[in-house]
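User: Show me sequence and structure for the first protein, then do the same for the second.

Assistant: Starting with the first protein.
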Amino acid sequence: MIKKIPVLMTAILTITAAARAQVGPEMRDVRTAAGMTVHGPVGGQYFRMELRGKDTGRVRTTKKYWYRVDGVRFEFFSEDRNNFVMTDVPKPLDDRVVLDLYRSDYLRRFAGTKPPNWRTAWIDLASGKTALFWSYKKNAATPKPGHVSNHEMFLVVSGPGHVFGLFAQVPPGRTEADVRSILTRTLGRLTFADEPFG
């Protein structure tokens, strides 16, 4: 019986991971004349995001789903709404409420309290959606050796059943406004459909 417990736990964890479909292994990158298109399934629907710039591509790293646009590296991620929104909400929530809940959950899980130099703003995207932006300086008083940057930022948008977002650090020689502009243009080209994109 005791030998069966690890097998049972592994099966439960596998089922739980499968139930939380995120952007991931089935995602594809396709080179285009303007840069690159990233597309794939998530939560029973399909997404497509265009990366445009003089230098675009997938960043080869041990971390998953990192890309670059004109010298700015960023992570593309999604989070199932069920991870931070109560499942028994009587009516659909406005996108801004969902994004506020996600930001609050982020602070609770990763920061505990607002980090130094916390900034946040609502940004209208080219897609017609409204995104939530926040940035902060991590370990501002005592930066750790080897850190390229302690200035981090997120830009998130509400999509079908998930929050989709981009995470980046401000590299040396670049400004927050510059990096935010690239993230805003990129996330503004995120679209959704019921059928796979061709």
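Switching to the second protein now.
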Amino acid sequence: MKRLLDAVSVSTAMALLSLGVTIGVATASPPSLSGELLGSRAMPTGWNVAHPSSKADVGCFQSLFKRKGLQPTRYAKVGYEDRTTLQVFVEALATYAKTNDAYMNIIATISGCKRVDALTGGKATSIVARRMPFTHYGNASTAFSLRLEVQGLSFRDDMLVVRKGGVIMGIEEGGFPQVDSHQFEGLIAKALARLATR
């Protein structure tokens, strides 16, 4: 059981870091986007704000929305976890001077990041990513399936990047052994409904 909980902690840290979450509370700069993030009331029963206990270096998956050469003009993010069902959910919102270019940059980065072997929280972690067919959202959207191997356990993360008007939204849900697709699509619908038209 300890091995499973350690692996879940690593999986949570990876999911939070990939969309730029470095702390477990909603933050924004400036605060205009934070009100458009999903709040805890929108989450299923048992989900709480995520507080990752592991430090992670996840290579090219690190901070997909905020990194050198890709700085948002506005940014907000939040992460949630349910330790009883071993799931994590992350939402990030960002605006950029050139939204379409930023969207294409994010998609190209994820697409080029096919496999990463990293040391996360002192644990050997392997991440394999591939595009996956998914419902179209917003003006443009691309979905990815990520498989994480931590301490011999396999986790699955689904990630969706959406450009809606002048905002880019990243949503990621991870679980052991896999993601609840119906729940993921429901959270996407809620998140897009909160996102004001820009």
